[in-house]
Write a structure and sequence with these properties.
It comes from Cyprinus carpio. The chain has 713 residues and is of the alpha+beta class. Helix content is 29%, strand content 27%. A hairpin with a 2-residue loop joins β30 and β31.
Length: 713
């Protein structure tokens, strides 16, 4: 189809453009959201996708609305990977969806066309069959010359070996694609091969930086700030400036300062690494940073956006070292009211590198005298008492800012974060725990939010057509309706009319029994799934200023300014603040690319955590934990493992020892009964009943917690 025909069809409403989602458990089913978000357009069969893969932007031809037919719509479906749940006949009672739509053109290939998987020998063929782990990707014919030398004679040796394959061609009349083997990864189930497979599939560039890129960095080491650069900046090296980060952090983006003024107000500074000084616009280093767009944080390592010389040394705000920064400095009242604001390039010398635990200990013991032995090395120019007072003042102001944000309608959906303790030599998981979000984390968060909002207003005021901002649309009405039905099933009274009402409901209306916290966590998971994703955009590309709004923060303008070491958008925001301008079309494409890489990075991080959890359970089990049921479909159910904050979808057809499954609805509430076989045939089968909000003990072997992430999907 010609480009002009596509444009005309989109204008007439005969064609619809959207992101393709393929059901990971039923790979013949795919969906594209309708433009108004009221329903999903169902694509039935592989041929209807016209060789598009999951995540691609596609154009779909649909029938006129009068020819649409009712298919199904289940409020529990979005609890898994989008619309992946099966539905019973009783669920097929709502939602108008087009009949027999099909992809007419792949508007933009987003999928990497790479996959990890296994090889199968085919007798009397000059090619082998590659079967991706992800069933949404087609099987691929690969030439035998790409396979290991002894594959033909000893195919059994490779049954559990993971390979990387790249699709090179997919004939229109064939369900099988053609491709080439790119790499042998290693044994399935092992951390490094699985991790490399995940990164390759999500197009994460984990290669070493080229010599050409490294030549863009300062060559005369150790590096020091040139005198002419110092003269152009506000000198804050004598100020009490410090960093607060995770104990293991090596890329220190941000620092804080706070001093009380004679009038009782406070001068508060947020100082951000001036990455744009080292990353010259248009350089090879800039190009590779823009392509990567974000650092990717795996359980066992970080794939940096920038070379480590910048990330961990020249840009990192390491203690007792002069560093270039971009600062926003406010005069704040004790209640957090902004009385004045200043932006500019600065130079700082952080007096101490504190962990969140160090800062938390000061917050919890404000009257304690801390000795030098209890803290990291500290500059002799600033007493520990001075640093403690600054942290306590920041904490008090942050509490005021936080209370005001939520009173104004902000929404916080903090989900439990699983962390791991690793063996120093093997990097294998030795233990796992839920990360504790403390007042010290909230302190840093409040001032980073304040700085990001200030930067957004600053660049939008000056460059209303060129500002890169971050918007968060409200949840679509369909998702709110589905969430309301889920809450009704759980017997919860939740206000979904506004972000303020939802935040209050999450913190006030969930009871005070022993499972109140579990219900809050389950509901937080469900609310997060109902939300649309926040995204970057260029203001010149959106004409309606109301669409700039950030729903969760409930603010009109927001951007990312505070993490330029690990996010490329922040580098662009720094350049805009420094009046280094670019063209509108470039910024629009840049925002879209950064959205894609941020989404991929988030999914890779999640899969890394799932992989480590599966390996941990397998190696360190047995693991039994209470779990709360989040939702029930007719052949699967979702649970939250309470001890670890891990969410899993459990498919009945994969449960060992299961004799029968019975699904029914009791009023609006779905209910599933599992009948288990007994090892002793003379004994009667046992039954377990599952419904939303019910709690049971989950066993790792019976329920498959020790399976790798990609097996479970």
């Amino acid at each position: 189809m010609r480009t002009e025909d596509v444009s005309a069809g989109l204008e007439r409403g005969e064609l619809i453009k959207g992101v393709l989602r393929i059901n990971p458990k039923k790979y013949k089913e795919a969906f594209v959201p309708s433009p108004d978000g009221s329903a999903d357009i169902f694509l039935d069969g592989i041929a209807a996708r016209n060789r598009a893969l999951n995540g691609d932007v596609v154009v779909v031809k649909v029938l006129p609305p009068e020819q649409w037919k009712v298919l199904y719509q289940n409020p529990a479906k979005w609890m898994g990977e989008e619309v992946e749940g099966t539905t019973s006949e009783s669920d097929k009672d709502a939602g108008s969806l087009p009949s027999f739509p099909a992809v007419v053109i792949i508007f933009e290939q987003k999928h990497s066309r790479a996959a990890s998987g296994f090889l199968k020998f085919l007798p009397n063929k000059n090619f082998a069959m590659f079967s991706p782990v992800d069933h949404r990707i087609p099987r691929v014919n690969v030439p035998l010359v790409d396979c290991p030398a002894d594959f033909v004679s000893r195919p059994g040796d490779y049954e559990n070996v993971l390979f990387i394959c790249r699709i090179t061609h997919w004939p229109a009349d064939n369900n099988f694609a053609e491709g080439r083997l790119a790499k042998t990864l290693g044994q399935a189930g092992e951390i490094e091969p699985e991790t490399e497979g995940i990164m390759t599939e999500y197009d994460v560039d984990f290669s070493e930086f080229s010599e050409e890129v490294l030549n863009c960095l300062p060559q005369d080491l150790p590096w020091s700030i040139p005198a002419h650069e110092l003269s152009r900046r506000r000198d804050l090296r004598k100020e009490c400036v410090f960093t607060i980060d995770p104990a293991t952090a090596r890329d220190l983006d941000d620092a804080l300062s706070c001093k009380q003024l004679s009038d009782g107000n406070f001068e508060v500074g947020v100082h951000i690494a001036d990455v744009s000084y080292f990353v010259e616009e248009g350089s090879v280093l800039d190009q590779i940073a823009g392509k990567r767009a974000t650092s990717v944080y795996l359980v066992q390592k970080v794939i940096p956006m920038l070379p480590r010389l910048l990330c961990e040394e020249l840009c990192s705000l390491n203690p007792l070292t002069d560093r270039l920064t971009f600062s926003v400095i406010w005069k704040l009242s004790p209640e957090g009211k902004i009385l004045s604001e200043w932006f500019g390039r600065t130079v700082i010398c952080s007096c101490i590198k504190m962990s969140y635990d160090h800062a938390q200990s000061m917050i919890e013991a404000p009257d304690k005298h801390f000795s030098a032995e209890e803290l990291p090395p500290c500059s002799t120019n600033h007493r520990i008492h001075e640093i403690k007072e600054a942290i306590l003042n920041l904490h008090n102001i942050a509490k005021q800012l936080r209370a005001q944000r939520f009173e104004s309608g902000a929404l916080q959906l903090n989900q439990l974060k699983l962390s791991f303790s690793l063996d120093k030599e093997s990097s294998m998981p030795q233990g796992c725990y839920v990360y504790q979000y403390q007042d010290s984390n909230k302190l840093v968060e409040e001032f980073m939010l304040l700085a990001n909002m200030a930067a957004a207003h600053q660049i939008y005021r000056t460059y209303p057509e060129l500002a890169i901002l971050r918007r968060h649309p409200p949840p679509q009405s369909k998702m709110v309706d589905d969430l309301q039905e889920f809450c009704d099933q759980m017997g919860l009274d939740i206000d979904l009319n506004s972000s303020r009402g939802l935040h209050r409901s999450l913190n006030e209306n969930l009871g005070n029994d022993e499972y109140a916290a579990a219900r809050r966590e389950v509901l937080t998971h469900m609310c997060s799934r109902a939300m649309q994703m926040a995204s970057y955009f260029c203001t010149g590309a959106l004409k309606d200023e109301n669409s700039f709004h950030h729903y969760a923060l409930n603010v009109p303008l927001y951007t990312h300014f505070t993490s330029p070491i690990r996010r490329y958008v922040d580098v662009i925001v720094h350049r805009l603040l420094a009046a280094s301008l670019s063209e509108l079309l470039y910024l629009h494409k840049l925002a879209s690319h950064c959205n894609d890489r941020k989404t991929a990075s988030k999914r890779v991080q999640e899969l890394s955590s799932e992989l480590f959890f599966a390996v941990f359970v397998k190696e360190c089990g047995p693991l039994d934990s209470e779990a709360m049921v989040m939702g029930v479909l007719d052949q699967s159910f979702d649970v939250l493992v309470l001890r670890y904050g891990v969410q899993k979808r459990i498919y009945c057809n994969s449960l060992e020892g299961l004799k029968a499954v019975h699904f029914r609805k009791v009023g609006k509430r779905p209910e599933m009964t599992l009948v288990w076989e007994q090892a002793d045939p003379s004994k009667e089968s046992t039954q377990q009943v599952y419904y939303p909000n019910s709690v049971f003990v989950i066993n790792q072997h019976r329920f498959g917690l020790n399976k790798c992430a990609q097996e479970i999907e």
